[in-house]
Design brief:
The structure holds two protein chains of two kinds. By secondary structure, chain A is mainly alpha-helical. In chain A, 70% of the residues lie in helices and 3% in strands. Chain A is globular, with a radius of gyration of 22 Å. Chain B folds into two domains: 129 residues, Response regulator (Rossmann fold), CATH 3.40.50.2300; 188 residues, 3-Layer(aba) Sandwich (Rossmann fold), CATH 3.40.50. In chain B, the strands form three sheets. A six-stranded parallel beta sheet of chain B has the order 2-1-3-4-5-11, sandwiched between helices. In chain B, strands 7-6-8-9-10-12 form a six-stranded mixed beta sheet, sandwiched between helices. In chain B, strands 13-14 form a two-stranded antiparallel ribbon. Classes of the chains: A mainly alpha, B alpha/beta.
Chain lengths: 361, 365
C-alpha cells in the first residue's frame, strides 16, 4: 500500500527539485502526445527546447527574442510573487499591463512629435502610475470594504480591454491612419521608441528593468523588513499582527507594486516590440506571468529562470508549429501540462511517500 | 469554357515546368490569427492554402501557424518563417500590418502578402482583400424582401471602413426593395466571441428583428436564431455554415444563404506567378468576378422569386455590370456623394467612415 505522510516541514530538496521533475514529466507526457499526433516526439521536443537556442539557422535570431519574450513575464511575475507570498492574490495583472501601456502611450502621443530626452522617462512614469492606479482599485475596495481582490482584479481586466478598444478606435487613434483603428507606431517616433540598446541582443529597457527588479526583489525579500512582513503574513497572518504588520498597508503595497511593475511591462512593450496601441494589443502576458511566478517558486531567481523557460516554450512552440505542423492547441496543452505537473508533484515537497501499511514500516 | 480549361492547363504546365527547373519546391507560408477550426475566417484561408498544395503538388510546400497574436509575436513568427526558407508569406489579419512591413525590410528576397491591409512600404509587400460588400448587397436584398417586422439586424465587429461599407451595402439593398425597413446595428468589438455574438443576436430578436447578418465569425447568432423556430432568419458568414441550413426534420433552418470567402483562386494565382516568374507587387481587391466572394446555396426558405432576383444580382455583379455602390446615394446628412448612375471609386470606399441616408444610428467613436 502506498500512502502519503505529511512532512513536519516542506522538504528543501524537493522544493527545488519539483520544477525540474515537472519539466521532465512534461517532456515525457508531451512527447507521448506528439507521438499520438503522428509526429516524432524526440524531434518535437528538440525543436521546442533546443532549436531556439542552438539551431544554426534560427538561433542568432531566436536567442535575443527569448529575452524580449521573457522580459515582461519576469517583470510582472516578480510583482505578483510578492503579493502571492503574502496571500494577496492579484489575478488582474493583464489589466494593469493594459492600463500601463495606454497611459504611457498616451503621454508619448500627447507630446508627439516633440524631440526630447524627457519623453521616454515621462512615458515610463506614466506607465508605472497607470498600472499602479488600476491595481489600487481592488486594493482600496479590499481594505475599505473587504471585497475579494481576486474577483475585482480579474474582472477589471475585462474593463481594461474595453478601454483599450475604445482608445484604439477613438482618443489614441492615428490621425494619419485613414480611419483604421490603432495608434501611431511608437517605433517610428525616436524619442519614444524602446528599441534594442545593443543591436542583435534583444536587450531593451524592459529587459534591463526586469533584471534589476529581480535583484531588488531578492534584496527586499531576504534583507528588508518589508520582505519579512510579506513572508510572515503569508505563513501566519495572526503572527504577523504581533510582528507589527498593518494588514491594510501590506495589501496596498503588494497590489501597488505588482500593478506598477505590470504597468511598466505594458509600457515597455507598447513602446518597443508591439509599437502601437491596437484593439487586441495585450497578448496574455499578465495571465502567463501567474504560471511563471509559481513555476519559479515565488522566488526572484526562480522566476528569472521560469520566465526564460516559458519564453523558450513559446518560441520553440512556434517553431514546432510550422516546422513540424503541430497544431497550436497541442503547444498550448504542452504549456498547460507544465503547470499541471508542477502543482501535481508539489505534493512531494509537503508529503513523503510511504510504501507499506501504517505502523509496520 | 474549353478555351478556359486549355488556358488553365497550359498555365499550370508552364508553372510546373518552371518550378521543376528550380531546385527546391516553392515554400508558401501562412500566418493565421485564429485556430483553423471547422469554419470561419482562418478556416477559409487555410482552405486556400490547401488549394495551393492541391494545384501544384510536389512543386510547393505549404507551412502555416495558427493563433498568432497581432503585434510583436507576429513579427517574430514571420521572421522565423523567412529564416526557415519561406519564399512567400501570406499574413491573414489586419493587425499584421506594421510587423509584416518591418520583416519585409529585412528579407528583400522573400515576398510578403498582407490580407486586408493598405501599407506597402517595401517593393516585396503586396496587399490583397476581397469585396465582401458585394455579398452584403445580395443578402441585404434578401433581407429587405423577406423581413416581416421591417426590422433587420447587423452584428458588427469594429467600426472600421471594412465593416461600415458592409453595413451600408446591406442596408442600401434592403431599403431599395423595402423602403420601410429599419436597421439595427450592434457593435460587439470582437471578430470571434460566441457568447457576445449570441447576446447581440438575442437582444435583436427581442426587439423584433427577424433577419440578422453578422460581421463576426462564429455560428452562435445562427444558433440563437434557430431558437425562434422559423420566425427569424440569418446568413452564414465567411464559411457556408451549412449545418444550419436545414433542421433535423428536413425543413429549412435559420441559415438561408451565406457569404463565403474563397481565397483559393487568389492564392493559387499568386503562388503560380511566383513560380513562373511573372510575380509583381500588387494591391488586389477581388470579388465575385474573381470567384473570391461566393454566395452559398440559397435554401427553400427563400421564395423562388426572391431567389431569382438575388441570382440576377449575383450574375450582374459577377459580369461587372452592377456595382453595389451606384448612385444616387446620400450620407446621413442628406448630402449626395454619388450622383445618379455614378459608381464609387475604390479610394473613398476603402476609407468609408459614414453611414448612408436612412440609417438612424451613429458610428461609435
Amino acid at each position: 500500500m502506498i500512502r502519503l505522510e505529511r512532512r513536519p516541514q516542506p522538504s528543501r530538496l524537493w522544493v527545488w527539485c519539483t520544477p525540474l521533475l515537472a519539466v521532465a514529466l512534461t517532456m515525457l507526457a508531451g512527447g507521448l502526445m506528439f507521438a499520438a499526433l503522428g509526429k516524432d516526439p524526440i524531434e518535437a521536443i528538440r525543436t521546442i527546447f533546443f532549436d531556439p537556442l542552438f539551431n544554426p539557422q534560427f538561433a542568432s535570431y531566436s536567442r535575443p527574442q527569448l529575452l524580449v519574450k521573457a522580459g515582461p513575464l519576469i517583470l510582472i511575475a516578480i510583482g505578483l510573487a510578492l503579493g502571492f507570498r503574502a496571500g494577496v492574490w492579484n489575478i488582474g495583472a493583464e489589466g494593469q499591463y493594459i492600463m500601463g501601456a495606454i497611459c504611457g502611450a498616451a503621454v508619448a502621443l500627447a507630446l508627439y512629435p516633440l524631440d526630447s530626452p524627457i519623453v521616454f522617462p515621462a512615458m515610463v512614469l506614466a506607465g508605472l502610475l497607470g498600472g499602479f492606479a488600476w491595481a489600487m482599485i481592488p486594493g482600496v475596495l479590499r481594505t475599505a470594504f473587504n471585497t475579494n481582490e481576486i474577483l475585482v482584479s480579474l474582472l477589471l481586466v475585462y474593463v481594461a480591454e474595453q478601454i483599450l478598444a475604445a482608445m484604439a478606435l477613438g482618443l489614441l487613434r492615428n490621425p494619419d491612419g485613414g480611419g483604421f483603428p490603432g495608434s501611431r507606431n511608437l517605433q517610428q517616433y525616436p524619442s519614444a521608441a524602446n528599441l534594442e540598446l545593443i543591436a542583435g541582443t534583444g536587450m531593451h529597457w524592459g529587459v534591463v528593468t526586469a533584471f534589476i527588479t529581480v535583484i531588488l526583489a531578492y534584496i527586499v525579500l531576504t534583507r528588508h523588513v518589508l520582505g519579512f512582513h510579506i513572508r510572515v503574513t503569508g505563513s501566519s497572518p495572526r503572527a504577523a499582527r504581533f510582528a507589527g504588520v498593518v494588514p491594510a498597508r501590506l495589501i496596498l503595497i503588494c497590489l501597488g507594486v505588482s500593478g506598477a511593475l505590470a504597468g511598466m511591462a505594458g509600457l515597455y512593450e507598447v513602446a518597443g516590440p508591439a509599437g502601437q496601441i491596437t484593439i487586441d494589443f495585450n497578448s496574455g502576458y499578465g495571465f502567463t506571468a501567474i504560471i511563471v511566478a509559481f513555476l519559479g517558486r515565488l522566488h526572484p531567481v526562480g522566476i528569472l529562470l521560469a520566465g526564460l523557460l516559458m519564453a523558450l516554450t513559446y518560441i520553440g512552440g512556434e517553431l514546432a508549429q510550422f516546422m513540424l505542423g503541430l497544431p497550436a492547441a497541442a503547444i498550448q496543452l504542452f504549456q498547460g501540462m507544465l503547470l499541471f505537473f508542477l502543482l501535481g508533484v508539489d505534493v512531494l515537497s509537503n508529503y513523503r511517500i510511504r510504501i507499506g501499511r501504517p505502523g509496520v514500516a | 469554357m474549353k478555351l478556359k480549361t486549355l488556358l488553365t492547363s497550359t498555365a499550370l504546365a508552364l508553372g510546373v515546368a518552371n518550378a521543376a527547373a528550380a531546385q527546391d519546391p516553392t515554400q508558401a507560408c501562412f500566418v493565421y490569427v485564429g485556430p483553423i477550426g471547422d469554419g470561419g475566417w482562418t478556416y477559409q484561408h487555410h482552405q486556400g492554402a490547401l488549394a495551393v498544395k492541391e494545384a501544384y503538388g510536389d512543386k510547393v510546400e505549404i507551412q502555416w501557424q495558427e493563433n498568432v497574436p497581432e503585434g510583436a509575436d507576429s513579427e517574430r513568427v514571420m521572421t522565423q518563417m523567412a529564416l526557415s526558407g519561406c519564399d512567400i508569406v501570406f499574413a491573414t489579419s489586419f493587425g499584421y500590418m506594421d510587423p509584416i512591413n518591418n520583416v519585409a525590410a529585412k528579407f528583400p528576397d522573400v515576398k510578403f502578402e498582407h490580407a486586408t491591409g493598405y501599407k506597402r512600404m517595401h517593393p516585396n509587400v503586396t496587399t490583397y482583400n476581397s469585396r465582401f460588400y458585394e455579398g452584403r448587397a445580395v443578402v441585404g436584398h434578401i433581407a429587405g424582401r423577406m423581413t416581416e417586422t421591417n426590422k433587420i439586424g447587423y452584428i458588427a465587429s469594429f467600426p472600421i471602413p471594412e465593416v461600415v461599407m458592409g453595413i451600408n451595402s446591406y442596408y442600401h439593398h434592403a431599403a431599395k426593395v423595402n423602403p420601410d425597413v429599419e436597421l439595427v446595428v450592434t457593435w460587439v468589438y470582437t471578430w470571434f466571441d460566441p457568447a457576445k455574438e449570441a447576446d447581440a443576436a438575442r437582444a435583436m430578436l427581442d426587439q423584433g428583428v427577424d433577419v440578422i447578418t453578422a460581421h463576426t465569425d462564429s455560428t452562435a447568432p445562427l444558433a440563437e436564431i434557430a431558437k425562434e423556430g422559423g420566425k427569424a432568419i440569418g446568413f452564414g458568414q465567411a464559411s457556408d455554415m451549412a449545418a444550419f441550413a436545414y433542421n433535423d426534420d428536413g425543413t429549412p433552418g435559420p441559415r438561408v444563404a451565406s457569404i463565403i470567402d474563397d481565397w483559393s483562386p487568389y492564392y493559387v494565382k499568386r503562388v503560380g506567378q511566383l513560380m513562373d516568374g511573372s510575380y509583381e507587387q500588387t494591391d488586389s481587391w477581388g470579388g465575385m468576378p474573381e470567384g473570391e466572394v461566393v454566395i452559398g446555396e440559397m435554401t427553400d426558405a427563400i421564395p423562388a422569386d426572391v431567389q431569382a432576383e438575388a441570382q440576377g444580382m449575383i450574375d450582374a455583379i459577377t459580369a461587372g455590370e452592377y456595382h453595389p455602390f451606384t448612385g444616387p446615394m446620400s450620407n446621413q446628412a442628406g448630402e449626395q456623394f454619388l450622383a445618379e448612375g455614378e459608381t464609387i471609386e475604390d479610394g473613398p470606399l476603402l476609407g468609408m467612415n459614414f453611414y448612408i441616408e436612412g440609417i438612424t444610428a451613429e458610428i461609435p467613436q
